[in-house]
Design brief:
2 domains, about 75% helix, about 0% strand
Length: about 475
């Protein structure tokens, strides 16, 4: 009786903690919704409805949808509206809720590689302080790119309880990507920017509307990323999520839907005219062929690639020709990378500080003769870590990325054949982001890094490994009973 009484008190306390944390979480998640709608001059009723809608999603434990909403807030509110930190608060509140609402059905887990994460968080403290010459850089680098990477990865590990959770996460991200693709296509075709801000429009006009090349009037679409290269990186990464869903699904209707999603994303990727994104996509196709699993799946993949290439060639011949021409003319990265290498050689241990303004000022004496204009980052995430924070930090980052990707591959090996295309698609998305980060700051751009880390966290989650172990044990027991 005493034991039962203690359990009852503990259960009541757990419910009280869950209810209180739910209120905190709901208020925190409702905040960016109110900001977004308020800036768009939507009525207070719409703000209340939006906040309540997200709170209901949390109550119903639609974790994958809420995670996708956080990535959307990271892009639109934190980046596009320049209200940095909103998504960060949402993730912290969500993790807080997950901890106090844990149960056998919704277990809590610590992220793998805590030692490497600790080194990553510690090694970046001095460079972050040294490079915080502006408020913008102080808010962007350590809170969002460094600490934000850790908590987004942690979020991915907690929500990936099994393969079904990863499937739902990829479905939600696919829906978000399709909406982004539609926005990008409309911007390219009509020249209109939906849900835009006058200040951002003025900035884009100051960059000649991201015209493709000198002598052309074709505009490269950046959507809410503003920069077309970041937008292209995004589509290069998310393109493989519906591809994995397409191969994994056994439903004809679902296959048609996923195929349609990919066929919407491909023109959007094309309209960014990002050579680096296309290179990473082609490399990603090779990676996905390796991780797709069955030979029959490889035939399905080959069939889709042929259809996609024929459709693109037939519908967008001019754009493809312009993309090829732009790729040939894009030879300005080498000088930028040489500058970063010179900075690393001069400051190998601590770098010159994590900050765009710091790099713009302090890298100038080391600028290569082949870099025509001063830049505030080296257009390469790995060189960015090395130049801004030093080689020790770069080594830790690469080790962290390699170790967590290795955990994801181990989970892929333990998965059943039917689930491997799904996990393989996620692995391919991470590899694509890593390859693209050679030509642009993918892993060091907050919204893209958040997307990559939450996917990688879900793929390398100990909960997913435990789910595979339980599934294998059940299958073994059924086979044993069948033999008996």
């Amino acid at each position: 009786m005493i034991k039962g009484s203690v359990w009852s008190r503990g259960n009541i306390q757990g419910r009280l903690f869950s209810s209180w944390s739910l209120l905190v979480l709901s208020a925190t998640i409702a905040l960016p919704v109110g900001i977004m709608l308020g800036l768009l001059r939507v009525s207070i009723d719409a703000v209340i409805v939006g906040g309540l809608f997200i709170a209901i999603l949390v109550i119903l434990r639609q974790d994958e949808l809420v995670a996708t909403a956080i990535i959307a807030v990271h892009l639109y509110v934190d980046w596009y509206l320049a209200l940095s930190g909103v998504a960060l608060l949402m993730v912290l509140a969500l993790l807080f809720f997950f901890f106090f609402a844990q149960s056998p059905r919704y277990p809590w887990v610590e992220p793998p590689a805590l030692g490497l994460w600790a080194l990553f968080l510690v090694f970046t403290v001095f460079p972050a302080i040294h490079g915080a010459l502006t408020v913008h850089d102080a808010l962007i680098y350590y809170p969002n790119i460094v600490f934000g990477a850790f908590i987004m990865y942690w979020l991915g590990t907690v929500i990936a309880r099994n393969t079904a959770c990863i499937r739902r996460l990829f479905q939600m991200l696919t829906i978000f990507a399709v909406l982004m693709a539609i926005h990008t296509i409309l911007q390219s075709i009509t020249g209109k920017f939906l849900f835009g801000l006058p200040s951002v429009d003025a900035y884009i006009e100051g960059t000649s509307n991201h015209v493709l090349d000198v002598g052309y009037t074709v505009i490269r679409s950046g959507s809410f990323f503003i920069d077309p290269n970041w937008n292209g990186t995004f589509f290069g990464v998310v393109l493989f999520l519906p591809l994995g869903l397409f191969v994994e699904s056994s439903s004809f209707l679902e296959k048609v839907i996923y195929l349609a999603a990919m066929l919407i994303m491909l023109p959007a990727l094309l309209f960014t005219y990002s050579a680096g994104a296309w290179i990473s996509v082609f490399a990603g196709v090779i990676v996905f062929i390796v991780f797709v699993g069955r030979t029959s799946y490889r035939f399905q993949l080959s069939f889709f690639i042929v259809i996609a290439l024929i459709a693109l060639a037939a519908l967008f011949p001019t754009q493809i020709a312009l993309q090829l021409q732009h790729a040939i003319n894009s030879n300005d990265r080498v000088g930028v990378w040489l500058t970063a290498l010179r900075v690393i050689y001069a400051f190998p241990l601590t770098g010159i500080g994590l900050g765009h303004q710091a790099y713009l000022l302090r890298a100038e004496p080391y600028r290569s003769l082949t870099q025509e204009v001063p830049l505030d980052h080296p257009h390469n995430s790995y060189l960015e870590w090395g130049a801004m924070a030093g080689l020790p930090l770069l080594i830790v980052f690469v080790a962290l990325l390699a170790f967590t990707l290795g955990l994801a591959i181990r989970n892929w090996l333990k998965a059943d054949v039917e689930s491997r295309p799904l996990l393989g698609a996620g692995i391919t998305a991470v590899v694509t982001l890593s390859i693209n980060s050679i030509t642009i700051n993918g892993w060091t751009f907050p919204a893209l890094a958040a997307l990559g880390w939450v996917i990688l966290g879900s793929l390398s989650s100990p909960l997913l490994a435990k789910s595979h172990a339980i599934q294998a044990q059940q299958m073994g027991s059924e086979e044993h009973e069948g033999d008996g």
